[in-house]
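Q: How do we represent a protein-ligand complex in a form that can be generated token by token?
A: Start from the inputs.
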Amino acid sequence: MIKRIGIFGSTGSIGKQALEVIKHNPDKFSVEILTANSNYEELIEQAIVHDPNIVVIGDDTYYEKVKQALSGTDVKVFAGEKALEEVAAMDCYDMMLAAIVGFAGLKPTLKAIQSKKAIALANKETLVVAGDIVMDLAVQNQVPVIPVDSEHSAIFQCLVGETRNKIEKIYLTASGGPFLGRKTNFLVNVKREHALQHPNWQMGAKISVDSATLMNKGLEMIEAKWLFNLQPDQIEVLVHPQSAIHSMVQFEDGSLKAQLGVADMRLPIQYALAFPHRIPNEYPRFSFRKFNTFTFEEPDLRTFRNLALSIEALEKGGNLPCVMNAANEIAVYAFLKNKIGFLEMTDIIEAVMGKVPFIEKPSLDDYLNSDAEARTLAADIMSL
Ligand code: NAD
Ligand code: MG
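Then emit the structure tokens for the protein with magnesium ion bound:
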């Protein structure tokens, strides 16, 4: 049977790679929904090539342009933030690929879960913001949440066949990003262009900056907590610059399982779309000749303080991860616009985390309010 896929965030790095996977497997997947925020030209092009049922342009000022360009087709066009949620609840698809970046992905994903859609989750911020609510809702609706993030896909793959066995701990591997081994005196001068050069992966701008600050690994620790129901002390970050081991699980007998492969996001995307099956592909294979040395080191929490802040948020829980995420989004976009320096991102996040009142057991509204409050505070701090 063909699985009907809704790609939310189809014009992004993950979205485009997902379209490639689907194009190679027309007997297994069809594209039903494509969405973009403002890149209407790419959305139109994708719609013409992939012939979905529906497209949504998040920024409704582009509605007419998209509508006009697709007037000769039977693709339905919707626009606006609310439309993302409405379309997420529609019957025309089976699985959502949640590939919107940031907090904006939360509401459509919640709607999809409520509508009993399987979720292939790239958007880690969804779990950082409201992981308890998302995972509870998924259990209630008997909806699988299958990770796309490469580390979490690795852990998920290691856990296949282990349902009765407890996890002792997981090792989340980290490349270390483009500034591995650098100290504060170097980072203070880092600009946008440097931060966007990741050694092993080609990704969207926000996650590239998060990888450079190690915030990405912090967000991934929190993502892992919710996906695999772990305590903070069961999650350890291990810097592994070759990015060959995508992560590892240690069981109660001390045995370790690791998942390895080429650093190519098409692989975890394909795995999540096809789960529980593996499907053949022609992508490059891993070479042990090329990678003949694997190395491991501790992350440098004193230099990359975003990771230390994330561990604090992970341990304290409540609305703190949500607040941290919101402050980080604002700080990253300011850095990308050359408005603040690399290290100032951390200062802003830390200040906001200290200011928004702590809520131990937040409701969804509490999360939404904490997010808004943190964004306002972060913007205020930057304008001082
Ligand atoms: P990207 O910036 O390349 O693409 C983001 C997509 O989201 C685009 O289609 C954009 O139109 C859409 N979008 C952005 N803001 C939106 C808004 N406010 N409303 C609606 N749509 C909006 O990002 P990406 O690198 O593809 O990452 C997507 C998600 O996947 C992120 O959460 C990221 O952390 C996660 N992820 C990405 C990679 C990777 O290799 N790129 C790896 C692991 C996890
Ligand atoms: Mg990752």
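The chain has a mean pLDDT of 97. The longest helix spans residues 364-383.
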